[in-house]
Write a structure and sequence with these properties.
The chain has about 400 residues and is of the alpha/beta class. Helix content is about 40%, strand content about 15%. It is built from 14 helices and 14 strands. The strands form four sheets. Strands 2-8-7-6-5-3-4 form a seven-stranded mixed sheet, with helices on both faces. A three-stranded antiparallel sheet has the order 9-14-13. A two-stranded parallel sheet has the order 1-12. Strand 3, helix 6 and strand 4 form a beta-alpha-beta unit. Helix 3 packs antiparallel against helix 11. It is globular.
Length: about 400
């Protein structure tokens, strides 16, 4: 009964490992969950109060397909400030999380016969969304360049079938922030070849000095006509479960996304829209600053502990909240007589024997790494990474 498309679908490994860790915890096993792609924090009181007001105000009706006008006006102002380029309400859409915005972008922007370049490692969902649109993902390896993009290598991948490129900075899973010079050169390639750039900046406010995040439209204003910007409130505002994302793009793209959403979800959750409108208020700035500073301290703790585990190596992340250590030197060693042959097997062993949940790099297109989220309490970071160290020391 299933279509070929449905049979080819695979579930998200990040969600799968996160859910397995939660099930073990519910069964009484103390698991340190490094697999979660969300902050272990409550959202701001301003956001919660706005949601309560929406409930008490009987905000139960359908809204415009891509959100209430006030929210889209606020988002347009936000994107205009970030890019230095004017965005109108008609160029903005609110979605049920950035994942829905990214799917819509792929669905209306790419199709059968198209190729879409994706730097690898990549967020697990990017290739699947491209395939669902009928297009073909083409991967650009970055591991040998400290996960930064080699623009010359990128240029060599462009063919007559190339329709677009997906960029994610700050980057999940590596935590790197793409260099300004590289982004400018990529923008010129996009313009030269009339490509579409999907620019995912869901972690844009979670960057640690001296690193600086740059929006590609701000760097090269002409890119507005060729860019689909994707943003999220999940990370910075601790609203992962609320599903609050947005897309900014040329009006024909937004109109196509509105048509798509009108036949799928009708509109994003009404109550979440009013809560997100409150998240845009300046009163939330101290909340965001506190979250960023807390993550900076947790990053230092996690990085110090991982760097002390020989023979692991790790590129220093400058954004988001992940470490992506190279664990390849642990492979072909044994644990209690069982030979470790893959990062998937390593992740399974760590969950079973060390009671820590990490996401194997295979989910992100790497057979050498695992992803570790440090967006959890510091004491859990310490406990979990000490357990990792003991596991490594026990290998033969």
């Amino acid at each position: 009964m299933l279509t070929e498309r449905a049979r080819a679908l695979t579930g998200s490994q990040t969600s799968g490992m996160r859910n397995r860790a939660r099930k073990l915890s519910a069964a009484g096993v103390k698991v340190v969950n490094f697999a979660a792609g969300e902050l272990d924090q409550d959202t701001s009181q301003i956001v919660k109060d706005a949601a309560h007001r929406a409930i008490d105000g009987a905000r139960n009706q359908y809204t415009d397909t891509l959100g209430i006008k006030e929210l889209r006006e606020g988002l347009a102002a936000r994107v205009t400030r970030k890019t230095g380029v004017e965005y109108a309400v008609e160029e903005i859409g609110f979605t049920a999380g950035a994942k829905q915005a990214l799917f819509a972008a792929a669905f209306v922007g790419f199709g059968p016969g198209d190729e879409v370049i994706i730097p690898a490692p990549y967020w697990v969902t990017f290739p699947e969304q491209v395939r669902l649109a009928g297009a073909t993902p083409v991967f650009l390896p970055t591991a040998e360049n400290d996960f930064q993009i080699d623009v010359e290598a990128l240029a060599q991948l462009i063919t007559p079938r190339t329709r677009g490129i997906i960029l994610n900075t700050p980057h999940n899973p590596t935590g790197v922030v793409y260099h300004t010079g590289a982004l400018e050169k990529i923008a010129r390639l996009v313009l030269q070849h009339n490509l579409t750039c999907v620019f995912d900046e869901c972690y844009d406010e979670l960057v640690y000095a001296p690193a600086v995040h740059q929006n590609i439209v701000k760097l090269v204003p002409e890119m507005k006509a060729r860019t689909i910007l994707i943003g999220s409130f999940s990370k910075t505002y601790c609203m992962a479960g609320w599903r609050a994302g947005y897309v900014a793009a040329p009006q024909p793209i937004i109109k196509a996304i509105a048509n798509l959403q009108s036949h799928t979800a009708s509109n994003p959750c009404n109550l979440v829209q009013y809560a997100t409108l409150a998240a845009l208020e300046p009163g939330n700035d101290p909340f965001v600053t506190r979250i960023r500073e807390q993550l900076r301290r947790q990053r230092e703790t996690a990085l110090q502990l991982v760097q002390a585990i020989a023979p692991l190596t790790c590129v220093v992340p400058t954004g988001a909240f992940y470490l992506f250590p190279d664990v390849s030197r642990l492979l072909n060693r044994s644990f209690k007589g069982e030979l470790l042959t893959s990062v998937d097997q390593l992740a399974e062993m760590l969950l079973e024997h060390a009671h820590i949940a990490v996401v194997p790099g295979s989910a992100f297109g790497s057979d050498r790494h695992v992803r570790i989220s440090y967006a959890i309490p510091t004491e859990q970071i310490t406990t979990g990474l000490q357990s990792l160290a003991r596991f490594v020391q026990s290998l033969d």
